Amino acid sequence: NLEVTAHNATINLYVNSTAVIPDYAVSLTSTGRLSSKKMSATKFNEYYQDYVCSCVLRVARETLAYLPVNLVVINAIGEISSTATGMTGEENILSVAIDPGTLNRLNFDYLDPSDSMRNFPHNMKFGKTTGFAPVPPMDANTVIR
Prior knowledge:
Layout: E1 2-4, E2 8-14, E3 24-28, E4 34-38, H1 41-66, E5 71-81, E6 88-98, H2 100-105, E7 122-123, E8 125-127, E9 131-133
Parallel strand pairs: 2-5
Antiparallel strand pairs: 1-2, 3-4, 5-6, 6-7, 8-9
């Protein structure tokens, strides 16, 4: 979904589920063989968080390259599990308001995608062992900068 006004754009971005991140790590043994072992939940969640934040940054960069707006609000919607019901469903997992001035000052060669969210007003609840939790979406009209 995309909503554009004279000065702002609000985008609902549906990110892929956690299935995009492998749940195993591959390494080379001392004898030169390829070894595979299950990845820890902590490492898996960190990779997924970086994936989601990378998607948000990419969409923001492309939107600001094409639209002359002062602010892009991106609400990332992903599939998460509810501990109350045991069921999975789509929830808003990250909302961020990105302005072009701050975005253009970032050095994308060296930044960590999830750490870079600190540069912008955002809503994100993330635990290394639990992953994402639902957060309220942001609206371009109510963002305080």
